[in-house]
Amino acid sequence: MKLINRRINIITFSLFLFISLFVYLILLSPIMEHQKNKMIENFELSSLNQYQIIEEFINSTINDAESLSSRSAIRDALLQYNNNEIDWDTLYNITNDKYQDGVNVLDDCLYSGRLVNNEILVDIGDPNLLNNINLPNTEDRIIKYNSTNNTIIIKNPIFQNDQLLAYDILSFNMIPLLEKIQTNDHRVWIEPEVFENKVKRVDGVLIFSKSFSQLNATFNREISEKIFFSSINKTKKHIFLVFSLVLIGTFALFYVIVINYAKNIIKQFEVSRNEAKDRETENKFLIQEMNKGFVLFKVVENKINNELNYIILNVNKTFEETTDMDKSIIIGSKLCKVFPTIQKYWIDQLDYVIRTKNSISFQIYVDYMEKWFLVSAYIPKENHLVMITDDITESISIQDRLTEKEKQMRITFDIIGEGIWDWNLLTNEIEHNNRLAEILDFDYDTGSHTYNDYLSYIYPKDRSAVQKRLRDAIDNNKEYYSEHRIIHRNGDILWVIDRGILISDETTKNPVQMVGSILDITPIKKATEALSTEKETLKATLLSVGDAVVATDKFMKINFINNEAEKLIGCLNKDVQGKNLGEVLIIFDEETGKLITNPIKEYIMDKKNHITRRILLKSNYGDFIPIQGTFSPIRFTDKNESSGFVIAFRDITEQRNIQREIEDLSFKDHLTGLYNRRYLEDSLIRLDTKRRLPLTIMMLDINGLKEVNDNFGHQAGDDLIKAAAETIVESCRVDDLVARVGGDEFMILLPNTKSEDAEKIKQRIISLAKEKYIYSNQLSIAIGYCVKKNDSQDIRMIQKCADRKMYEDKLKINKNLDF
Hints:
This protein has 819 residues and is α+β, with helices and mostly antiparallel strands. It is built from 27 helices and 33 strands. The longest helix has 68 residues, at 2-69. The protein is elongated and about 185 Å long. The termini are far apart. The model is unreliable at 537-545 and 605-611 (pLDDT under 50).
């Protein structure tokens, strides 16, 4: 019995062991393996989502780099610099603020620099981020990943009409993005110079790898299988323990053990399922909160016509907001139903992704929304497609405005007065604008002509000289200039000025292009030929005189001063640009001595084209220079509004000295050196103003001049006149004006002088005259004066009054005068 029992026990144990092993190996292991595969699929899907987020970031940085490099104002400045139209400092001043404004709006940009001719024009941020990064010298865009500091380096070329102008080098920080998608269990990194797309299990580690389409690098996400399959492994261990206890226990407890085991299995599967749900929830949260629209499609192929239908399985919150669609309504609908006006181009792009299994990005326009979207599409798993949408309506609007600006610039070139030409020295083709076609009577539709076409229009006698000048400019790499005649199709002979500059190949340094302009100067030539030799000489003389010129904007900020202005003011053009005119041009009114703080306001009070004044300039050397200036507003012809001002002036020191000499000859009495009657008459008009009141006129006459001439000769008479002049000047004040108005008559103009002051001057003259003797004859002067006290009095009547009083005084003196 014991043996039977033993055998039964052995058979029972063996049967139980067999059943246990069967359940464990045949049933449970496949289930566990299937669960592992499901977890791996979830791991792959979540990794793809993280990969897509990074790829979107890469595409965004590329778009940001293109946006920064496409600014037309900076690009035009680069073209001007390459054409030697502006210098390096000017290029920097144009670029710096605009470039910095463009960089400041770029998210996660750690460094940005503009490289012109292998020299940094301007940079922002930390250039050390580029250390040990090899950026080849190629005209293609270069994108590299720096694994040392987790940054993306973009070297973006800048072109203008297929001409490489510069490079923009940008470094974007990926650390915040990597930290956002990094978890405690998973390790995420990007491996440069590697191209790999697969999920692999190596040495107990589960690794997801997928390469980027725009970046020579691979996204990697790994997790230890021990951690990843921890719940499954725990279940296995628990099962093994349970089976071990079953083997040791009795057959009576078999059912209890099975029940407990089943409960435990259910519990463990629930735990595994909850963990998978948690990971799925985490991935859904990332998708739901991303700032781009997310759509998951199920792809169903129509077997009849092989057409692919896209059924919406899920969308995120951003997609709902940007499309104004309710998620609950569109889930389960076909794409063509949700977007009834969908373009075939859109469907073709999605079909391409499904059939080639390649990720792509493209732009679409949704009519009824009036919005542009940047769409990225990829396959997360079989028969499914993910579409990421980004609203780029504003960016497209900006691009349209830039395109419109460029169109306006082209129109501007067509309407300017000069004909513009662009000669390709390699092909001999010459592109021209409409103005040049008008001058030479070319076909407007072609927009180009050949070198030989142009030569055929040149006047035969001028043709060889023009060819020689062109060849000389090309051979010696210098500017081309020619003034010659051309024959219009209608037979008219036109005079033109033809200019051009060379553009050389950066590699070979050989000239490959010449850009220039033609100006029709026929009217000028005809007018010039009509002038006489004397006028031509005068014209040449005037052209050779260099005036100082200062140009300002409408806010009186200086834009430019020429070389002559630099010499007179005592400062350089580059040092005064942007400064207020009053800070640089320090001038005084010559008549009043008043500092003119605002020359424009002082001298352009009405709306005349220009007003000329004589003023004194104080240079930076401390000198006061008499100048003659012309202050001219720059006006818009249609609105007559001022857009700026031009001040032209010259040093008239020499002219002033000559003028004084002439005035001395024409306004001075040669005998006494006093002013003559002519000057006094002009001064009387000039001083007859309200602010000179009271104004005193004093008339003087030498007593006994005729008797002295008769008795002692004319030399004695001259001595008497000079003695009288010295006495009068000595008695007067500095501002008083003394003149000899006749043989023995003098006049004094006394501005701001009352009667009592005039009387004092009269008494001083009489007192000094008594001390002087000419040939034993005492000097005697008759004096009379009259005062103009208010503006209503006639100055001529005041003069007659003074003259009458002088004669009354003369009569009194002559009664007592004895020679």
